[in-house]
Each structure stands twice: as C-alpha cells, then as structure tokens.
Amino acid sequence: MSEKKRKRAEYAGGHLPQKKVAAGETIEISVLENEKQWMPVLASTPGHCLPPKASFKPFVKTQSKAPELLLHSDAHPKLDYTASEEASNGSDGYLIHYIGVYDSQRGKLQLVPARKMVIRSTLKSARRALTTDSEGEQEPTSKMSARNALGLAFGTKKSQKAIRSLTANAISPSKPSSQPSSSRSQLEPLAQAVVSSMPSTSTTMMRDALEAEIDESKPRPKPNLQATTPAEVYTISQLVDGEDTLSKIPVKEWIDTINSSRDVLTRSLYVSRRLIKLVQANDVKMVRVLKYLYLLIEWAKALQQSGKAGKRVPKLEHTAMAVLVAGWGSELVLGLSKRFAAEGGILNRWHQDYLITHILALTLLIDGFVVDTYHIQQDLKLDTKQVAKYYRELGCAVSAPTKVEQERMGMLKAEAQARRMVRLKIPLTFPKQRGLAMRKKR
Fold first, then answer.
1. Of the candidates 84, 221, 266, 348, which lies 20 to 30 Å from 211 by C-alpha distance?
2. Sign of the Cα pseudo-torsion (246, 247, 253, 259, in order)
3. CA distances from 347 to 18, 112, 314, 315, 394 (A)
4. Alpha-carbon dihedral 280, 286, 292, 295, rounded to 10 degrees
5. What per-residue confidence (pLDDT) applies to 136?
6. DSSP string spanning 359-421?
7. pLDDT tens-digit series, residues 34-54
8. What is the CA radius of gyration of the chain?
C-alpha cells in the first residue's frame, strides 16, 4: 500500500485553521452633511445609452414639501434627456445612497449623501407637438381620432367611408363664433383630410350620377331614354342582334303550314296563341321576331344546372341543343352563347336575368306594347310577382286588367285578379333605387 497520507490528516483534530487577517492602519470614516442641498447624483439610464459628453442643466422644484432636483439636456440633435427622482416602492423607498472619497495617505474616508435619479429620453418632435397643442389651447388627440386618422390613411374603402360618415357632421372650427372667417377656414388635420376627400358636386348631382351608373349596369337591354314613342324605346334590331340575324331566321315552313290550315306544334303557349294571327296579317318580319323569341325560350329550357344558382350551356351534341340546331341552324344557336353567356358557357344570375328581360322586351314589340303576362310567365315558369318585377325594370307600368280588357279577353272576375297587364308608356317609369332611398332617410 502507498504511504502517502491524505491532506486532511495533516490537521490535528480534523479542524481547518482559522483565516488570518492582515494587520493595517485604522481608517477614519466621516459623513459630510450638505446643508445647501447640493449633493452628487447617482443616475441610471434604463433602456438607452447616454452620450459620454452629455451636459445637464439643473432645476429645483420647490412646490413640494421636499425640494426635488431636475436635470435636463438638449445637446442631442434628436433626443431630449430628463433626469428626475423617482419614488421607489417597498423597502427601497427608505434607502439612502452615499458616495465615498478615500484618502489613502491620511487614512480617511468621507461619505457624502447622493441623490438617486433616473434619466429618461423623449423625441424632440413629439415634445414640439405637445408644446404646439398647449400653446394653441387645443385638446390632445384622443385614441379614437388617432384611429380615425390611421383609417383614412391606410384603411380600406369601406372603412374610410364609415369614418367619413361618422365625422362629417362633427367637422367645425375650434371657435366658430369668435374667430374671423380666415381662421375659421383652418380645420383640424382630420377634418381637412375628410373635406379634401369629399367631392365638390352637390348631393343631388351625386345621386343622379349614381343612379345612372346603376341603371347602366342592370341586366336588361339598354332603353332609349330620349324616345318620344314606345316603338323607339326598344327596337327589333337591338333585341334580335341586328337585321342580319333577323334575316337568317327560317319562317317559310311555319307560314306554309298555317296557310294550308294545318297546326304548328310548339312547346310555347305564348307563341302558339300569336302565330296564326301574325301569319294571317302577312307580317313576315314580326313572324321572324316571334320565332327568334321561341328560340330564346327553348334555349333557356335547354340550359343545364351549374352550382347553386348558375346554369351552363350544353354542348351541341346534347339532344336539346341538336334539336335547336336542326330548327334554327348552328350559327344562330352559337350566337346566343356569345351574347347571353359568360366565358366557358356559364350563366350566373345576372346573365339569366339579362336573357329573361330580352324575352320580355320582345313580347312588348309583338303585342303592341300592351302585354297580358299570363302566357309568357307560363313559358318561363315565373310567378306573377317575378314577371311584374322584370317588366318594371324595362320601364313598364304593371296593373290589373281593366273591365274593358276583361270583357274583350273573356276573363272571369276571379281570373282577372290573378292576371297582370303590362304597358310601355312615355315617359318611362323605372323602379327607384331602394338602397339610395334608405340612405337618404338617414
């Protein structure tokens, strides 16, 4: 075994020796009380770095019971520094700080009470804004006005419109009664932003322009608002897509069949009730218009469902489309898809309404601008309320049949209550914009 002993065994009794304190000179400690209240400063800079050559100007706040020292520096080009004595919470509130100066030759240590201060920094631009507001006796910007200003600068069109509607009635000068007109015209920044964004036109002109824009985008044939007679409002060339298209519609078979006292079989109640009368009147042009209307009705029936409210044009190989091509020709059938369907052969609600209004406008031309809606609404599978709404969009007046019309058409009183007569008159009467009317009430 090794004879080397452990270190702890060298000490008798297993106890460690006590540490020895080096002997030195006695230090004399004294505390210097500052009667004039000038004393050194211990300052902390939380959150920022103080420039090494920053100089501060002292100020004394004597309004409180104990005088408070304030230090301020504006040497920095962008920042202001302010040092103040901040009260501490808990036991730190009773803490007193000292600074000591030790003289090693004399062996004396002098302690001087020191003020504990915290240096904060602020932007000079923010300080100038606060100073300007206080000099002009203006109220400080609230959180709501600040949010509104941000909304006008960076918000969506909908949010900007809501902010303007809330602040439009609140725009006023600070002192409208005492200030002259030149100073009253100077509004607050938020008010200036709102006023600059408002159009200079009057409310009536804005309303008329908005109504004209909405009317222009409605799904209906464009009416001639300068028309002096009902025949000038919607023309055959406009509704049939040109005289060239009208001339391509084959009607010889229909005319020959009627002239030979035979029946023409159709799936349209409206067409069947008017075909014989038009052929006997030898009105070939109006017979072509009637057959074009029949094409629109059959084409609308051939559309296939696409989604919840949309419809789709089937391919020409489809049975229903093949029948249309055989009766009217592929050129006319393909022309309907280009005219009434969107890209890809899809008809949304707007395109479907556009098709229906063209059909109803054609009935006005065929019936001499006075239409009994029963036959056409049966073909389009519309109820009385729906078909009346479409005719009103065309500028027509809708009413119940008069007694003269009831006797001429042989209607019973109960039957006449469910019927509607449509008349296209000059001047035209279109439905008012309900959204605009509600907005005006507000």
1. 348
2. positive
3. 102, 92, 11, 14, 21
4. -30
5. 47
6. HHHHHHHHTTTEEETHHHHHHHT--HHHHHHHHHHTT-EEEPPPHHHHHHHT--HHHHHH--E
7. 655 567 888 887 877 888 778
8. 47
Q: What is the pLDDT of residue 439?
A: 41
Amino acid found at 153: A
- The residues near 214 (Cβ < 8 Å, ≥ 6 apart) are 433
- Local mean pLDDT, 10-residue blocks, the chain (442 residues): 55 56 70 69 80 81 70 80 75 76 84 83 65 48 71 75 68 45 48 55 63 77 92 93 90 93 92 93 94 95 85 88 89 90 88 94 94 93 92 92 87 83 91 54 38
The first and second tokens of residue 105, run together, are 């030759």
Residue type present at position 192: Q
For residue 129, give the amino acid letter. A
* Cβ neighbours for 167, distance < 8 A, ≥ 6 positions apart: 148, 190, 191, 194
> Which pairs with CB-CB distance under 8 Å and at least 24 residues apart come from 64-71?
67/37, 69/41, 69/115, 69/117, 71/41, 71/43, 71/117, 71/119
Q: Helices 349-366 and 269-280, interaxial angle, to 10°? A: 30
Task: Report yes or no: 371 and 420 within 8 Å, Cβ to Cβ.
Answer: no
Contact residues for 433 (Cβ-Cβ < 8 A; gap 6+): 210, 211, 214
